[in-house]
Amino acid sequence: MKTSIATVSISGELPEKLDAIAKAGFDGVEIFENDFLAFDGRPTDVGRMVRDRGLEITLFQPFRDFEGMPEPLRSRAFDRAERKFDVMQELGTELILVCSNASSASLGGIDRAAADFHALGERAAKRGLKIGYEALAWGRHINDHRDAWEIVRRADHPNVGLILDSFHTLSRKIDINSIRSIPKDKIFIVQLADAPLIDMDLLYWSRHFRNMPGEGDLPVAEFAAAVAETGYDGYFSLEIFNDQFRGGSSRLIAADGHRSLIYLGDQVRRMPNAPSFSVKAMPDRAIVKAIGFVEFSADEEEATELVGILRTLGFRKEAVHRTKNVTLYRQGDIRLIVNADGGGFAGPSFVVHGTTAYAIALMVDDAGKAFERAMALDAEPFKQAVGAGEVEIPAIRGVGGGLIYLIDDKGDLGRFSEIDFLPVEDDAQIAPAHLLHVDHIAQTVAYDEMPTWLLFYASIFEARKTPVFDIIDPAGVVRSQVLENASGSLRITLNGAENRRTLAGHFIAETFGSGVQHLAFHTDDIFTTAASLRQNGFKPLSISPNYYDDAEARFGLEAALSDRLRAENILYDRDEFGEYFQLYSPTFGEGFFFEIVERRGYKGYGAANAIFRIAALKKHLRPEGMPKS
Ligand SMILES: O=C(O)c1ccc(O)c(O)c1
Ligand SMILES: [Mg+2]
């Protein structure tokens, strides 16, 4: 499988686009005509720029409103084509994409269109060029790849073939089985794009909301598998029209695109009946068995404050690092590491971001294989010097430049805390709070980074994403999407902030980047936990009494239960599977907080409560820290 991307998918000027595309590892690039027209250079210069970067021009596009025109438009279309052939020869590309005619002047008739393509094929052949015909989903007469294929078949010219584009086929829910019977040598190239399912006009949807395969909701991998079954093993080329991508970082978007294609290739390779597909094998998606630990970076002063909160939450000091100012706290299966050492990566992370949970360790089935898969998917490896005799834990960079450590229960990795740490006795008087494991990790990112991280997690780890949920913050909207596995051992909620006046946006602005904004721990008895926390001096986030009146009415709660909830500041939710209880800490530092949950069968995340929780949390932020709305 060879990878390509259209210049239209990437922001910036043409040279910047090409740099980003080459750096991300693509083999080829589609030159989108407008990008070329806006560039101040000859076609030969552009051709050289592309080849100097080690890329091939996969095609030149789009050529519009060609087939089925009445005279004199028909002759003019042929003249226009000859001019574009000149450009292509200078650029050094042999394929032009002709998209189906959308003009109201065009005449229907499959044979008329086929005759036009035969004639164009003759002209192209004289110059050694090829014509690829693509059905736009909104084409005037041709808007279905099956009809486009019939025209190509009747055109019956070796220089005329079909271009498939997943968006046009999948947006119209056209049966992808119809692809399986197209001869592979008549498929000149395949374009791929995904999109979120939104009910809107096809043209508008296509030109503004496409995204990378795997980032949206369309069955793009199944589409690619149907293509692969024809024996086609040529370029898969991303063609992504997306408003956010146009304004985003060219490097990051190109990198996402490359990752999406590798992941897609891996998915197709694993499907039955796709034997001819040449993609590199990589280990399976890693199965996350547990959250191994979460590590905070802090200076001495903030570490003391953080540890004070951990103690009220019932955490005990379990071990100290042999050589560094690093302490391990524990409760149930939850391990929290407080790193106040100032060295390694934690030190600079603190200087930039303040006290944050900058590293997460995921306990996977096989850390070595998980790392290998992450590398195959372009993840950035992380290495730092380890002391003599200490365990080197494989790690990759995650959200906001934070770390994801990959551990498993084999060998030294399974015993790293015994090897690197010395156990200590903790004689503090703390009531245990029955916290058992990490329920979920909430990461806050800028809104336009959300697809990046959803793709990152879902491609490396065995997890699925839930639909987007909009959370209303008093100062704006925060979009929330969850990555979770079936067992619930991996649950990451990603919150995308659009402005800095929302709680999430404030967090990003004040911590100078995306990161973990809250950690939720699971208890199997929220009321016993609440009592222990009170005993430890924990101050829960106080929730408006109006909330409880409403909850009582909405869920038909017994007065005794709602009184208990009110007394303990516990939020309540219910779904078809069961009940959910949530208790929050106030914010710490720049907006970090803890949550304690009890799930009685419930599968969600209390999204309906988020608005009340956010309103309450905002009252606790440092008053000077929060911009006035
Ligand atoms: O939106 C368009 O006009 C357009 C042009 C060329 C394509 O390949 C395509 O998929 C869409
Ligand atoms: Mg297309």
Describe the protein's architecture and organization:
This protein is an alpha/beta fold. It has three domains: 2-269, Divalent-metal-dependent TIM barrel enzymes (TIM Barrel); 288-423, 2,3-Dihydroxybiphenyl 1,2-Dioxygenase, domain 1, CATH 3.10.180.10; 435-625, 2,3-Dihydroxybiphenyl 1,2-Dioxygenase, domain 1, CATH 3.10.180. It is 35% helix and 25% strand. It contains 21 helices and 26 strands. A nine-stranded mixed sheet has the order 14-15-16-13-9-12-11-10-17. Strands 18, 19, 20, 21, 22, 23, 24, 25 and 26 form a nine-stranded mixed sheet that branches. Helix 5 (110-126) packs across helix 6 (145-155). Bound molecules: 3,4-dihydroxybenzoic acid and magnesium ion (MG). The site of 3,4-dihydroxybenzoic acid has 11 residues, from strand 3, strand 4 and helix 8. Residues 134, 165, 191, 239 line the site of magnesium ion (MG).
Strand order in the largest sheet: 14-15-16-13-9-12-11-10-17
CATH topology of the largest domain: TIM Barrel
| Structural class by sheet pairing and helices | alpha/beta
Shape: elongated
State the low-pLDDT regions, or none. 624-629
- Global mean pLDDT: 92
Which bin fits the share of residues in helices?
25-40%
Q: Using the 3D structure, state the CATH architecture of the largest domain.
A: Alpha-Beta Barrel
> What is the rounded Rg?
28 Å
- The tally of helices reads 21
Strand proportion, as a percent range, falls in 25-35%
Domain VOC: 290-409, 437-586
GO molecular function: 3-dehydroshikimate dehydratase activity; metal ion binding
Catalytic activity: 3-dehydroshikimate = 3,4-dihydroxybenzoate + H2O
Pathway: Aromatic compound metabolism; 3,4-dihydroxybenzoate biosynthesis
